[in-house]
Design a protein that fits this description.
About 20% of the residues lie in helices and about 20% in strands. The protein is of the alpha/beta class. The protein is globular.
Amino acid sequence: MRRYGKHTDEDDIRSRPNRKGNRPRTNIRPKHEDALEGMVLTVDRGRLTCLVEDRVITAMKARELGRKAAVVGDRVGIVGDLSGDKDTLARIVRIEPRSSVLRRTADDDDPFERVVVANADQLAIVTALADPEPRPRLVDRCLVAAYDGGLEPLLVLTKSDLASPDELLEMYGALGVPHVVTTREEFVDGLAADRVREHLVGRTTAFVGHSGVGKTTLVNALVPEERRRTTGLVNAVTGRGRHTTTSALALPLADKQGGWVIDTPGVRSFGLHHVDPSRVINAFPDLVPGTEGCPRACSHDEQDCALDAWVAEGHADPARLYSLRRLLATRERREGD
């Protein structure tokens, strides 16, 4: 075997040929400075429908992203064929930092969280006042997820002709959550959509609610069906028709002032395993100063919490403290309780 001295040159070095003829592996990843920014509109079995400028394209995640997944609402960097022509496929090479995240787990015992929507400004929680009966515990859980993820909540109460909204409005009044109350007749004549639209213009709003509350009917009224067909958001991925709420879907609001509506699948449960209870207090800025005297790692729902004395001294509304503690207890209760 030949031994090399200290003064070898390149001609003395023998390299093993690359029999596959492809490029050698490297840990240096391309930066893709030429990638265009797009928005993820829907995700289906590894294919992502994205809006790039004024074109709807189909893309897949680049291998270099590893396990990091893009979700509806994500701003992403895309390279490849961006023409939007049939049978073309682009690559998502970068996921931009998110301004907000709506997450949930299957239940409170499930450690695996699922990101439902990214970069939404608002979460519209749709619930019926009757048929089906309202589920305040589910509403509470959605509120906690919204506060934890950086979204502002909007409460949409439907079917007020069947039951009074007063009890629910009193329950959430101390939270200061904006609300819209609608009837079944208003759904038919379009008035319900008009009243909700006032809260959506210029914003990205995710809609959540369980089956039968009228969520998808409301979204359909906000986003005309012809707009859905022209953008091809559903069929562009698989070539087949499917129910729009089997996966999250972002749709442009039919309004000159802009805005996005994100329809999410109907939920039967909303797990909060991922939520750190200590972050829920951030949704109550009027109570935050009162936590300065709390013991370390205080849950704000225990005997030594300083908030009790602070609120009793008149620094904040007792109803606000009650609302905070009701939300903090949400993880300990099931939605049907």
